[in-house]
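Async update (no meeting this week)

Hi team, since we skipped the sync, here's where things stand on the single-chain job. The sequence we agreed to prioritize is pasted below, unchanged from the tracker. I ran it this morning and attached the output directly underneath so nobody has to dig for it. Comments welcome in thread, and please keep replies under the output.
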Amino acid sequence: MAWGDNFYSRLVAWMKILLPLAALGLLSTLFLISRTIDPTAPMPLTAIDLEQRAQDLGATRPAFAGVTRGGDEIRLQATRARPDPDNPRTLFAEDIRAELRLTEGTIVDIAARSATVDQRRSSARLFGEVRLTTTTGYDITTEALEARFDQLRAETPGAVRGTGPAGELTAGRMILEGNDEDGSAHLLFTDGVKLLYTPKTSED
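Output:
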């Protein structure tokens, strides 16, 4: 009986030593097999993620303001803009709002769905339901409008339609240009102009 008690005591004593050592060995093995994680390291990106981020590179609510050679003020704002991956000098912009404050006092507001802006040429091409309104009474819509920032000039490559002080009108082309010498501005309609005259009713 004494031998059994002695064996049991020795077994318990050895187990107290071996079990913690075995646990430490298992933990060491797990740490060696597992991949080290750095909490400060950036998240891994797949090829699709990188391509999407490159396409989405840009700025939200960018704005541009300048003055033409004739002194007219130009302000342009977009919801979002991103550079052309093939030509960094060209920008793609969405939801365009532009304002022209002419030296003679007229204000021209322009809205469009999107635009391409050429920074080298100081020009922009607006397209997608382009609408031009003036404080002189014109409300014109067209599909595209080409404009410059260094001088007062905007023209449509295609037809326009809308209303003016005299009534409803359509034309194959519209040009807004300024004269740097006297500061005047002219809105011209060409290429088959049709005007439906609406006489003003006299107020009693």
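Quick observations from my side:
The longest strand covers residues 87-101.
The radius of gyration is 36 Å.
Reply here if anything looks off.
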